[in-house]
Amino acid sequence: MTDVPYSSSPSGVPGAARPADSGAAESSPAAPGGAENLSAAPGAAADNRPALVLRGLTKGFNGKVAVNSIDLDVPSGSFYGLVGPNGAGKTTSLSMATGLLRPDAGSVWVHGINVWEHQLQAKRLMGILPDGVRLFDRLSGEQLVTYAGLLRGMDRETVKERVRDLLAALDLVKDAGTLVVDYSAGMTKKIALASALIHAPRVLVLDEPFESVDPVSAANIRDILQSYVSSGGTVIVSSHVMDLVQRMCDHVAVIAGGNVLAAGTVDEVRSGASLEDRFVQLVGGRHETEGLAWLRSS
């Protein structure tokens, strides 16, 4: 596999150096509970704070609660899985956490910066692969990733080098000049991931990154993400594939009905069972099948 280059921040964590104006977050209200030091003054033990903190995050649609005042701490340098049934609130939670959807209540901090009070500073720290990603599909793959880098204020030579490395790492070199509109679903996922990685963020938030991706490409993406985490980055990934989350992640949260049912290390949450069995136990998703006796072969 081709190594993807990650620049180091002053703290040694992958990503661009902290913005000079990020100190504005120090005037933000302190996060409740264990996150009270998120806006600590320079010199505090900043590297010990979580990469992402959600407090009381709430969202409703048409009178129905989609996310019900959830609290979550994502440790810095972790590979964090978010699992839940369809309609559980995973995508809504991630959209609010990344500044794509305004919450009805609650707060979000990324490395100590309030996402909704200091959106520009917060988004500089994040790479995002949202659900149902929409891209400028009349650009070629190479043009799209280049545009993403330039949009982040990167110099053109650095962008050129990183685009080359990312396309090689994701096996997209031969399709670099093809319009994104002509990409398969799996290729679209990969080029969107390249766009999320181009600025070497400190936190990656990926909603179903392996959906529609072939097994070989999925294995390659896992290698890239594992290398990123090993370098000090943080990955938050939602997935329906329990076996994948159990093998890939070191922390996991189970969400259902807009509530966090369990959160912690993978071993803590699964409690000696497989993650899939523990998930079914928590969510209670099995149903009787007696009424399907007619499916038996004659």
Would you kindly provide a brief summary of this structure?
This protein is α/β, with parallel strands linked by helices and 298 residues long.
Walk me through what this model shows.
The chain is α/β, with parallel strands linked by helices and 298 residues long. The chain has 9 helices and 10 strands. It has a 6-stranded mixed sheet, with helices on both faces. Helix 3 (141-151) packs across helix 4 (156-169) and helix 3 runs parallel beside helix 5 (185-197). The chain is globular and about 60 Å long. The model is unreliable at 1-45 (pLDDT under 50).
Q: How is the topology of this model organized?
A:
Layout: E1 52-61, E2 64-74, E3 79-83, H1 90-97, E4 105-110, E5 113-114, H2 119-124, E6 126-129, H3 141-151, H4 156-169, H5 185-197, E7 203-207, H6 215-230, E8 234-238, H7 242-248, E9 251-256, E10 259-265, H8 266-270, H9 275-283
Parallel strand pairs: 3-8, 3-9, 6-7, 7-8
Antiparallel strand pairs: 1-2, 1-4, 4-5, 9-10
Helix pairs in contact: 3-4, 3-5
Radius of gyration: 20 Å
Distance between the termini: 51 Å
| Topology as a string of helices (H) and strands (E) | EEEHEEHEHHHEHEHEEHH
CATH topology of the largest domain: Rossmann fold
Strand order of the largest sheet: 6-7-8-3-9-10
User: What is the approximate shape?
Assistant: globular
In DSSP terms (H or I, runs of 4 or more residues), the helix count works out at 9
Q: Whole-number average pLDDT?
A: 84
By CATH, the architecture of the largest domain is named 3-Layer(aba) Sandwich
